Amino acid sequence: MLKELVAKSRTYRRFYEDEIIPTEVLKELAGLARFIPSTSNSQALRFRLCNTPGENEAVFESLGWAGALPDWEGPEKGERPSAYIIILCDLSIGKNKLYDDGIAAQTIMLGAAEKGYGGCILGNVKRSHLAQSLHIDPAHYSIDLVLALGKPKEEVVIVPVKEDGDVRYYRDENQVHYVPKRTIEELIV
Question: Could you tell me the CA-to-CA distances from 119 to 27, 93, 139, 143, 158 in Å, in that order?
């Protein structure tokens, strides 16, 4: 069951924007992070939930979407995420909690997949712009990651890594998104 959930929890970049994720669902997803391991048990991560048109627009304007697709500036209106969870670190408790960020992001994404949502974990963020837009005090909180969430509007297919070792994701003429993954034999040393 976990294997299927992990396989289902792909990175999606296009969504049914009008399918709103209720605040209570976002709280439930962020709440999953309460149970994750935490460096020194500091529990320094905090979460900013966004699902209103104004906040969503501010977050969207702060994001870079797909490094391997340089001609694509991100989803068009109508295909943008309907919600975001911004992972913050309370700097009065801890700094550089990168392990915690990754564990929290993956846990939230697995929870989203279980509920039929998909998302994208974004580290390419204009942090100063986002902090200013959402009134996040950068002296108190670092903006670590942004989780874009929504009902997926695209097909994502896992394929083997090409013979030349190229792992860059790509799209075909029908906008099917392909993600090369290494075999288990390549991963075990």
Answer: 16, 28, 28, 18, 16
Give the CATH superfamily of 155-189: putative fmn-dependent nitroreductase like domains (2.20.180.10)
Question: Which ranges constitute the DSSP H helices of the chain?
Answer: 2-8, 23-31, 53-60, 98-114, 127-134, 184-187
d(CA 54, CA 63): 15
Between CA 93 and CA 42 the distance in angstroms is: 7
Tokens describing residue 125 = 């963020």
- The predicted model scores a pTM of 0.92
CATH code for residues 2-153: 3.40.109.10
Alpha-carbon distance 13 to 153, whole Å? Answer: 8
Q: Which residue has the tokens 């289902």?
A: 8
Decide: 10 and 72 in contact? Cβ < 8 Å. no
Whether 155-189 and 2-153 are alike in CATH topology: the answer is no
Q: What ranges do the domains of the chain cover?
A: 2-153, 155-189
Positions in the chain short of pLDDT 50: none
Q: Residue 81: what pLDDT? A: 98
pLDDT score recorded for residue 24: 98
Measured from the Cβ of residue 23, the count of other Cβ atoms closer than 10 Å reads: 13
The two structure tokens encoding residue 139:
């002296």
| 19: DSSP letter | S
